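Q: Structure tokens for this one, please.
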Amino acid sequence: MPARGIESPKRKRQYEHIKESELKRGASLEEAERIAAATTRKTMREKGETES
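A: Here is the predicted structure, written as tokens:
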């Protein structure tokens, strides 16, 4: 489940993709989720999308 504020299907896919990539690199689940959320939120800010 994506972090709070990540609601669009596109951003949910991005979050899951990043999380899976980080897990494959050896990050813990907690760390992978933190990195995925931060990266997805950064992209949302850069694209001018709002968080709910």
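A few notes: The chain is about 65% helix and 0% strand. The longest helix spans residues 29-47.
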